[in-house]
Amino acid sequence: MKRVLIGARARQGLVFTLAGVLSLPLVACGTSEAPDCGSLSAADPWVRVAPEGADVMGAYFTLSNDGDDKVIVNGVSSSQFDRAEMHETVVNEDGQASMHPIEQVVVGPGEQVAFESGGRHVMLFSPSQAYAAGDQVELILACGSDQAELPIAATVRADGPGSDMSHGGHDMDGMGHGNGADEDASEPDLSDDADSAGNANEDSASAE
To answer: Does residue 141 contact residue 61 with C-beta atoms inside 8 Å?
Structure first.
């Protein structure tokens, strides 16, 4: 009788042990991360045309993740510019806009993340040549632990896709990148989005 009781307890312990082991993959699946770019794609990529002589341009697109794992974008680059950085525009309580570099962007399964005026965007510093509307710019996203590359072909435009061009080709968000832009990423007055808080610089005002 004693031997039967011990066997029952042993079986019960084995059941709990197996249940714990089987639950581990389920937890991992809920937080899984693609080692590369997974099923990430970019829609409507474009770069805002800059005034003559400007050395900073802004790039925009919408990221979509159609996969089952989250994708982490670790950075962006372009062979046509000296460097590229992901930034986010933040407006404080006084309505003043400033830019903050961001190291990573996480796109969850089935989610979209917009890089747009007034929010996240890519800043492109020191172009290799002057780019006009209609030109093509290649952006390369680095993502996942493998640092895989996702190339994006962006078109230089005066306004974004679907815009009604109501500003006659001049968008004050883009005009914030005036000549002689500071390259230390601390220039809130030169943000794509500074004018959204009423802080466009003098170059912006004169351009309109």
So the answer is: no
